[in-house]
């Protein structure tokens, strides 16, 4: 028998998956060049955050773009 070792990579954790999705969704930094943006923190219910993230992926846009567009329609 030969003594080759087979190494398996660890299974991605949910946290790693979420970080990957966040990076993928927010990777388009072009909006930062268009507008002077101010960073803020908001707290969303988990289910709403999940729906927002899925919508951004499906529309090939960022969560920031969706939030800005929605706020502009609502406030302005």
Structure description:
The protein is 58% helix and 0% strand. By secondary structure, it is an all-alpha fold. It has a domain of 40 residues.
Order of helices and strands: HHHH
SSE class: mainly alpha
Instruction: Report the C-alpha radius of gyration, rounded.
Output: 19 Å
Distance between the termini: 74 Å
- Biggest pleated sheet: none
What share of the residues does DSSP label as strand, in percent? under 5%
Unreliable spans: none
Contiguous helical run count: 4
Q: Give the oligomeric state of the chains in this entry, treating copies of one chain as homo and distinct chains as hetero.
A: single chain
Average pLDDT confidence is: 80
Number of strands: 0
Shape: elongated
- Report helical residue fraction: 55-70%
Outline the fold blueprint.
Layout: H1 14-26, H2 30-34, H3 46-58, H4 63-75
Provide a short characterization of the protein structure.
With 76 residues, the protein is an all-alpha fold. The chain has helices at 14-26, 30-34, 46-58, 63-75. It has a domain at 37-76.
Task: State the main characteristics.
76 residues; mainly alpha; 4 helices; 0% strand
